[in-house]
Amino acid sequence: MAPVLELSGLSWSVGAATIVDGIAMAVEEGEFVAVIGPNGAGKTSLFNLVSGITRPTAGTVRLDGADITGLPPHRRARRGLGRTFQSSSVFPTMTVAEHVALAARAAGAKRVAEDGEGVRAVLERVRLARRADDLAGGLSHGDKRKLELAVLLAPTLAQADSSPGGPRLMLLDEPMAGVAAEEVGELTDVIRTLHRTEGRTVLMVEHHMDILLGLADRVAVMHHGTLLATGTPDAVMADPTVQEAYVGEEL
Ligand SMILES: Nc1ncnc2c1ncn2[C@@H]1O[C@H](COP(=O)(O)OP(=O)(O)OP(=O)(O)O)[C@@H](O)[C@H]1O
Ligand SMILES: [Mg+2]
Fold first, then answer.
1. Does the pTM exceed 0.85?
2. Ligand 1 site, residue 37, Cβ cutoff 6 A
3. For the chain, which terminus, N or C, has the lower number of CB atoms within 10 Å?
4. What's the pLDDT tens digit per position in 69-82?
5. Distance 233 CA to ligand 1 centre (A)
6. Is the CB of 155 within 6 Å of ligand 1?
7. What is the per-residue pLDDT across 173-186, written as a single tens digit (0 to 9) for each?
8. Do 81-167 and 1-73+171-176+202-251 fall under one CATH topology?
């Protein structure tokens, strides 16, 4: 079976600056791969290339074996690729439930406004049902992150059957950024459920190794746009070239 995601020679230059530099990586079905690397290493730029927000200057992106390098983001989403953004992206004056309903309608779900139960079920999967009628602007950072995950899962309401639905491959760009320490545990549990219980493949940027230890099968380390190392969290932490890349920064 082809890997869910396969990157080869993936590069992105802006003017004379090469920001993503010849990334080759395969992610297998059901795998959880963490992407770490110092600030400015090119992690978000890599996610932009994979999700189609930017076009590579060289190389290819394959999803389930098919070359999707030329597809726009919405066509990739339809093929099962979803992503969240590094900065929170909720609408402050819309309620939590309205976010899910809107995303479900955008994915083609009919009568979703009346389907309060379906919306609630999606919110329960990210442990946010208790805030269904609250405005998103008043949520804690952790709850905003959960809402972003609910929005990713919302297309499930457009499906005729009751399969988990939503993206099979999730790209999460620093979902813990800005989240208070006491909320990190529950958010980690939600992400773990999306991966382990629902079987989704996850690619997640995260700086904190302690969070990744119980979550990631494999860690990919970026540095100056290149892939410096990949391996288990323990192997990567023990790798001297990785430690060198992080000189002056916390690993
Ligand atoms: N549109 C752009 N034009 C020019 N340079 C860019 C652009 N986007 C990103 N860069 C540069 O590319 C480099 C990598 O940025 P990127 O945001 O991908 O890093 P990152 O690894 O996600 O960093 P962080 O950990 O801070 O989120 C940085 O030096 C950044 O300034
Ligand atoms: Mg980034």
1. yes
2. yes
3. N
4. 999 999 999 899 99
5. 24
6. no
7. 999 999 999 999 99
8. yes
SS3 content of the chain, % helix, strand, coil (to 5): 35, 25, 40
Specify the residue with its C-alpha closest to ligand 1, atom 24. 39
Ligand 1 binding pocket includes 128 (Cβ within 6 Å): no
* DSSP for 116-155, written as a single string: HHHHHHHHHHTT-GGGTTSBGGGS-HHHHHHHHHHHHHGG
Q: In the chain, what are the domain boundaries?
A: 1-73+171-176+202-251, 81-167
Ligand 1: centre distance to CA 42 (Å): 5
- Residue having the nearest C-alpha atom to atom 10 of ligand 1: 19
Instruction: Tell me the helices (H) and strands (E) count for the chain, helix number first.
Output: 9, 10
- Cβ neighbors of 181 (< 8 A, separation 6 or more) are none
CB 207 less than 6 A from any atom of ligand 1: no
Q: Which fold has domain 1-73+171-176+202-251?
A: Rossmann fold (3.40.50)
Mutate to test the pocket of ligand 1, among 12, 14, 19 (most ligand atoms within 8 A of CB): 19
Nearest ligand to the CA atom of 223: 1
